[in-house]
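Still learning. Show one?

>
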Amino acid sequence: MDRWAQKYRRVLKPLQYVIVIVGVILLCAMSLLLVTTVYDYITSPFLAKALKIPPLLPLFPYFPQLFNIESIFPPFYFTYFLMAIAIVAITHEFSHGLFARLNNVRIKSTGVAFFGPFFGAFVEQDDRDMKKIRKFPQMAILAAGVFANVLMTILFGLILWGFFALSFSPAGVNFNTYTPAIVNVSAITSIGGVPVAHVDFTSINDSLIAFNVGETRFFALGSALKTAFANEVPAITVYDDAPAINARLSGAILSIDGVPTRSIEELRLTIASKQPGQTIVVTTREGDANFDHSITLADRDGKAYLGIGINKPSRSGFKGIVSSVIFKIKDPYIYYAPTWGGEFAWFVYYLLWWVFMINLLVALFNMLPLGMLDGGRFFYLAVWGITGREVWGKRAFKIASWFFIALLALMMVRWFAIFF
C-alpha cells in the first residue's frame, strides 16, 4: 500500500474526487432503494411470500437450497462463497488502506482472517490520524472500499457477459404465466364443480382450481379465491380456460413439432403458423429432463391459441436500472444451453455471477448511513461539510441511523408476521 500510494500519487490524488462523488451517489441511491424496497415489501401481499428468505440474512453457502429458492437465486456453493468473499474483502480493505496511506494516515495492522471455515480481510488505520486530516480526504478513505467494489462489479460484469456470450446459446423460451383474465367475484357460480353457496373454503389449497362464471370456465389459485371471497373483493385476475393451462404446461418451451423456439418471436411465429384445432407436440425442459406434451390448439379470433404469456415487471427507478443491466447478460425469459463444458460451464457462470453480485451488494449496503458502515461516518462528514457545523452532522447521523434501523426492523417484523 505504501509503495502504490507513492508510485501512483499523481493519479490517486485527483481520483479522490471521483471516489467521493461515487460515494455520494451510492449513499443517495441506496437510501432511496431501501425506502422503496421497504414500502414494496410492506404493502405487497405477495412479495414476502415469494422471496421466502428473511430480509436481513447473513450471506452463507447453500442458502438458496436451504430456503428452497433456487428458482430465484442460482446455487451458492462453498467454493463460490470463499472466492467471492476473498475478492470482495481484499479489494475493499486494500483500497481503504491505499488511500489512508496516500493521506498519511498510519495503518496499525493488515491481514486476512479465518473464522472457522469463513474468510475475511482487514486494514486497521490509526483513528487519531484520521481525525487530524481534513473532512474531504476522510470521506475519500471511507468511500474507497465501496469504490473498489464498484470497479470489481464493472470488471466481473464484463467478464460475466463475455463468458456467457461465448459459452451459451438460446435454446428455448421461459414463459411465466398463462393467459390472464379479469372476472367479477360476484359472478362466480361454482368452484371445482360445486355451487358457490356450498363450497367449503377451508378445504381449498394453494393449487390451481377450476371455477365457472355461468358456462364459462376459468382457473385461479385456490388461495386467491379464498382471499377474494373472505375480503369481498369485487374483481380478481385469473387465467383463461386454454390448452396450456389444461395441460399444466410448465418449464421452458424448446420446440413445437420439432421446430426450435429459441426466442419469443420464434415461439410466436411457430404458433401463428398452426391452425385452430390442430394437435401439436410441445417439447419442454424441466430440471434436467425434456418432456413432450401433445396439445390441441384452441381458437381465438380465428387464430391458433395456446394460452401462455410472459409477465415482464416494470424496470423503473434505480432497481430497474440494476435489473436491466443484469438482464442484458442473461435474459430470464430465454432458456440457454451451454455450447461447451456442460455443467462445468454453468459452474463457472454461477461463480462469476456471485462475484459480480456480491461486489454490487457490498458497494450498495456499505454506503447506508448507519454507524457500523462506511456510509455512516461518510454521511456525518458530508452534512458537517455542507452545513459547517459538526453538531448538525452528528444529529443528522443519529436520525438517519435510527430511521434506517427502523426500516430494516419493520421488514423483519413483516417477515415474522407472515411465516410465524
Observations:
- The chain has three domains: 2-169+316-419, 180-241, 246-309.
- The first strand starts at residue 107 and ends at 115.
- The longest helix spans residues 9-43.
- The two ends are 49 Å apart (CA to CA).
